[in-house]
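Researcher: Next sequence.
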Amino acid sequence: MLEKIIFNLLAFVMFILIFGKFIKKNDTTYVYILGIQFIGIVINFIELIFNIHLNLFFRIIIYILSIIIPGILILVEHKKKVDFPEILNVILAKIALNSGRTEQAKAYLYKIINKYPASYLAHKSLAEVYEYENKPDIAIDEYIRASEINNKDIKINYNIAKLLNKTERNDEAIETLQDILKKKPEYYDATNLLGEILYNTERYKEAINVYMNALRYNPGNYDLYYNLGMAFTMVNDFQRAAEFYKKAAEINSLLYNAKLSMGQIALIAGDLEEAEKYFKESMKGENVEAGSYYYLAQIAILKGDKEKAINYMNIAIELDPKIYDRVQKETIFIPIKNNLKSPIKNEEKTKKSRLSMKERRALNHLSKTCLLISNLNNDDITMMKKLKEREKDANEKQRGN
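Model: Next structure:
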């Protein structure tokens, strides 16, 4: 009996609170909640009038309808500082968007904005709809409105920066990302995007500073070390690049790209043994491409091993048929050109590269630099190696003093 008295008291209080919101907000959306409560109260009333003992399942249903659902609604409105009509229409808009009905989604959201012009949820969701429709300029405007209403949501500013980058408004994107990182320096997504924009606009030294600062918050992040390797590559600081590529390879030894780059740098320095070691290690990684085999063929020629060079180059051509034409133009491969298998024209299907544009740019830069090695003979390589050893000995003696 006590339980029923408490239940009826709570249900009555909840009903009055929701009804009060309905009157105050003058929004018929609250009728849905009042209807749900009414069903629960009616079931309980029938039980009392006809002296029916409902089982546990129905008792739970009564509590959910009469107390739990309206209680959750009141709590969410209080915590999130939003009204139920906003929440309901945003949910309906998301459902419509997920099913591809963008016009219906916008209709729900504009309905909210017409009644609640300062609705953060509505403007943010509307921006997402326009982003889905590939209308970045309108999406940016809506994200800005949402940010003006709630400037604590840094993710909004990150979304704005992404769209600014997409529309090639790079300076604005950079400024937005820098503001984000001043407030939240550990925000990795902002760091990654800022570094990428700076790298792609050839502002490599600024990209290096961004990645170096990020290491304080993500000391074990493979991508940061690999990105630093690429950035140092583009400013021709191959020694620092090698350090960061090596660190990246230590973090994830299964990835191919870092070790390929380390091999290229060793080849540039004239250290054929070191280069060969890294190229062979890169072949054990995931997503192996033609590059390692191409450079191993080059090293084999420099060492005078024609047969090994042919084998490596044929594998490279099999992985990437376009290499065949490239080899025909490079003088270093003159000794083996006539022994290479020409790809069949109708089967020249290059394996799709998994490298990003940023990765290809760094590897191409190293490739061009590696061409300087192409015309060297073994005596030249030996001389470069001796000079490198002398430089190393001199540095060690200087540290000792």
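Model: The chain has a mean pLDDT of 82. The radius of gyration is 33 Å.
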